[in-house]
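Try this one yourself first.
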């Protein structure tokens, strides 16, 4: 969540009052104005928080805590970075798989691995929504393909 400060003014009994209001907003809403895109981001966030993908009962947020914005852990306790810059560091070369892995691939791998679930198909609305949500977390981050996740 970002904290946005809004300046507001009002007139009360002929006296002009001004103030500063702090408003908590999701990181993506500050710079994404397209309502249709916001709907897809919200759908992806809902999947991230609630969908087990017919797996072991875990959801994405089980490991990627605080909606993916904070470092988390794998089921075995191994620490994992946040997703705050995931879209900025993909695609990346995965030595274990011996190939370039896209953000779409990584999300499918996480669902199939840690969640032991059925990952949405490439091109599906659900995978697009998840990728769009995770990408929204990287809003404003510098592109660093192959860089380190934060």
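Now uncover the answer:
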């Amino acid at each position: 969540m970002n904290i946005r400060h809004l300046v507001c003014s009002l007139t009360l009994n002929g006296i002009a009052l001004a103030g500063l209001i702090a408003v908590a907003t999701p990181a993506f809403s500050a710079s994404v104005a397209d309502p249709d895109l916001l709907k897809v981001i919200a759908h992806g966030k809902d999947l991230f928080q609630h969908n087990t993908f017919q797996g072991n009962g875990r959801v994405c947020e089980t490991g990627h805590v605080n909606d993916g914005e904070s470092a988390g852990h794998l089921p075995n306790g191994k620490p994992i970075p946040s997703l705050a810059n995931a879209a900025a560091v993909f695609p990346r070369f995965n030595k274990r798989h011996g190939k370039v892995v896209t953000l779409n691939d990584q999300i499918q791998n996480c669902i199939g691995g840690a969640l032991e679930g059925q990952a949405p198909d490439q091109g599906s609305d659900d995978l697009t929504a998840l990728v769009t949500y995770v990408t929204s977390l990287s809003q404003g981050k510098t592109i660093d393909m192959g860089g380190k996740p934060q």
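Discussion: The helical segments are 35-50, 60-63, 86-89, 103-113, 125-136. Residues 1-27 form one domain.
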